[in-house]
TrEMBL record:
GO terms for cellular component: cytosol. Catalyzes the reversible conversion of ribose-5-phosphate to ribulose 5-phosphate. It comes from the Bacteria. GO terms for molecular function: ribose-5-phosphate isomerase activity. Pathway: Carbohydrate degradation; pentose phosphate pathway; D-ribose 5-phosphate from D-ribulose 5-phosphate (non-oxidative stage): step 1/1. This is Ribose-5-phosphate isomerase A. Homodimer. It comes from Paenibacillus endophyticus. The active site is at 102 (proton acceptor). Belongs to the ribose 5-phosphate isomerase family. One of its GO terms (biological process) is D-ribose metabolic process.
Length: 222
């Protein structure tokens, strides 16, 4: 989609020689990785770390040099997509199942640039079901605890089997409707045994670039 591409390509303009770059996951991050690949082929000297096996394969196919997490202290810029963005730049992520690696990479990044099309910008988070990564052991117990928090958790499926993340876990997609207090919900979710992480990214984005149907891309004002 053109608006996703516009936002993603604009974000890559901040990338310069010598940087370590975090590669996001999903259909918008895809365009950023493609553009980075093109610039690498033209001589840009960077190293990258991927947030999913899918993005890693794409990076390898484009000749983007990868670096292991064990070999870095920080990441200069990460460019990633989101499922929802509010006016405070809080996010829901994980629609593609990559939230855990994305959050680890984001937390080590000096700058997290979020790239979305205009359909992702919302007044309040929660319309998009919140992905929660859970351990497979006792997942039914974990799901019941999620339910008690007021979510309607649905175990994500891949065909007839539960979807399994790159980390070997399940995803519960929590239908909430609206999240008036994201900080509170984030903390409550993280207290449930069996929850590894959740798709709320609070206060992590340094910039949000939105692509519009009219062919422009600009930073979302806070
Ligand atoms: O797990 C996936 C990621 O959080 C994605 O960045 C998010 O789902 C947005 O993906 P897309 O750009 O394909 O809408």
């Amino acid at each position: 989609m053109e608006s996703k591409k516009l936002a993603a390509e604009k974000a890559t303009e901040s990338i310069a020689d010598g940087m370590i770059i975090g590669l996001g996951t999903g259909s918008t991050a895809y365009y950023a990785i493609q553009k980075i690949g093109q610039r690498v082929q033209e001589g840009l000297a960077i190293q990258a770390i991927a947030t999913s096996k899918q993005s890693e394969e794409l990076a390898v196919s484009l000749g983007i040099p990868l670096i292991a997490a064990s070999d870095i202290d920080y990441i200069d810029i990460t460019i990633d997509g989101a499922d929802e963005v509010d006016s405070r730049w809080n996010l829901i992520k994980g629609g593609g199942g990559a939230l855990l690696r994305e959050k680890i990479v984001a937390s080590a990044s000096k700058q997290l640039i979020i790239v979305v099309d205009e359909s992702k910008v919302v007044a309040e988070l929660g319309r998009f079901p919140l992905p929660v990564e859970i351990i497979t052991f006792g997942f039914e117990i974990t799901m019941r605890k999620l339910e008690k928090l007021g979510c309607q958790p649905i175990l994500r499926q891949a065909g007839v089997k539960p979807y399994v993340t790159d980390n070997g876990n399940y995803i519960a997609d929590c239908h909430i409707g609206s999240i008036p207090n994201a900080e509170e919900l984030h903390s409550a979710l993280q207290l449930i045994p069996g929850v590894v992480d959740n798709g709320l990214f609070i206060g992590m984005a340094s910039q949000v670039i939105v692509g519009y149907m009219n062919g422009t891309a600009k930073q979302l004002e806070k």
